[in-house]
Inverse folding.
């Protein structure tokens, strides 16, 4: 199964990858943070995590994460109050550590990586990683997360203790 966020529709499409057809559309709760941006799947727990944000109509920006049970395609938990230590809204990149269930979310403007407990969606840690963190990936075998900074500025390694371990400056290689 493939899950695709539908930004303007406030939903997630479920696609059968063998037949390449949409088999379900999951409506997301209308919480004010209604625009799904990206998602990640934990193959161990069959949970899907979707980042949401909204700054529509000039209102306050908000960020959230919605948890979907992949077995039933139903929303089981949500957070619409997600802000990092700088007050910024984590909203872009998301990844899951399938070994321990941690969910990693990047905060585009605040420069932070927020780590959530995958079962409760409570904040476990916030780490400053640098200018405009965008994508994030996790190596579940080592517990390291890798955060891509926008504009080719670099890749930041965050260890299993949620602290920055190293930064690879990509601008020196261009």
């Amino acid at each position: 199964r493939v899950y695709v966020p539908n930004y303007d529709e406030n939903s997630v499409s479920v696609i059968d990858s063998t037949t390449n057809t949409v088999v379900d559309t999951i409506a997301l709760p209308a919480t004010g943070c209604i625009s799904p941006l990206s998602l990640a799947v934990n193959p161990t727990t069959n949970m899907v995590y979707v980042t949401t944000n909204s700054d529509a109509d000039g209102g306050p920006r908000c960020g959230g994460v919605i948890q979907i049970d992949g077995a039933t395609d139903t929303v089981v938990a949500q957070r619409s109050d997600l802000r990092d230590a700088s007050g910024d809204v984590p909203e872009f990149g998301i990844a899951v550590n399938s070994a321990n269930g941690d969910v990693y979310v990047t905060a585009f403007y605040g420069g932070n990586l927020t780590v959530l407990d995958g079962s409760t969606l409570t904040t476990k840690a916030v780490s400053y990683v640098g200018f405009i963190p965008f994508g994030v990936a996790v190596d579940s075998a080592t517990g390291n997360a890798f955060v891509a900074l926008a504009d080719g500025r670099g890749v930041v390694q965050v260890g299993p203790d949620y602290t920055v371990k190293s930064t690879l400056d990509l601008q020196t290689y261009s």
Remarks:
- The longest strand covers residues 35-42.
- Residues 108 and 132 are 5 Å apart (CA to CA).
